[in-house]
Design a protein that fits this description.
heterodimer; A: mainly beta; 4-stranded antiparallel sheet; 11 strands; globular; B: mainly beta; 0% helix
């Protein structure tokens, strides 16, 4: 199947700093990527839809100025958590599909804000 | 609405026991349905899927049948192994094509030897 890769897999930062997470589709082009957030022992919550060459679409309750999404190419979407705080600590997962309905997921990025 | 409801865990079984994890969905049409598995410390992996009513998805001994009458997609396995210990997520496509998935809350399965 198609491969989606995230980087970094783990990141620890100080409160108030910004962190960038990359999501790459390695062997296919993705005009659309999805960013999810997973809290401990909970399900994945869709944060936003990343659209290549245009603005991301955010789900209700997700602060777009807090979670900046850039989809500058057909193989790369980035999520930047700005001015991170401890409550932003979470597992962030991206996914992309081939348009057939099946989605492929990155390995996830665990963010810990001290 | 567009939701997925699955049985809450955790579920603890002995090796070789029969597994059922219930999943129901709400939809106005017939969305594609999926089961994803998340092993400890790893990302999500597609386990199986069904794209239309009465389809049966199967993989690694797991099966699930798309039942439109009961809007269900229950996951079953006849004989679980310790290596099946993971969190299982039922999901449906929000819409057709390249749209996001809506996930259930996940069910943690622990299989003991």
């Amino acid at each position: 199947g198609a491969v989606v890769s995230q980087h970094p897999s783990r990141v620890i930062c100080k409160s108030g700093t910004s962190v960038k997470i990359e999501c790459r589709s390695l062997d296919f082009q993705a005009t659309t990527m999805f960013w999810y957030r997973q809290f401990p022992k909970q399900s994945l919550m869709l944060m936003a839809t990343s659209n290549e060459g245009s603005k991301a679409t955010y789900e209700q309750g997700v602060e777009k100025d807090k979670f900046l999404i850039n989809h500058a190419s057909l193989t790369l979407s980035t999520l930047t958590v700005t001015s991170a705080h401890p409550e932003d600590s979470s597992f962030y997962i991206c996914s992309a599909g081939l348009g057939t309905g099946e989605l492929f997921f990155g390995e996830g990025s665990r963010l810990t804000v001290l | 609405g567009n939701s997925v409801t699955q049985m809450e865990g955790p579920v603890t079984l002995s090796e070789e026991a029969f597994l059922t994890i219930n999943c129901t969905y709400t939809a106005t049409g017939y969305p594609s349905l999926f089961w994803y598995v998340q092993y400890p410390g790893e990302g999500l992996q597609l386990l199986l899927k069904a794209t239309k009513a009465d389809d049966k998805g199967s993989n690694k001994g797991f099966e699930a049948t798309y039942r439109k009458e009961t809007t269900s997609f229950h996951l079953e396995k006849g004989s679980v192994q310790v290596s099946d210990s993971a969190v299982y997520f039922c999901a449906r496509l929000l819409d057709s094509g390249n749209t996001p998935l809506v996930f259930g809350k996940g069910t943690r399965l622990s299989v003991i030897a």
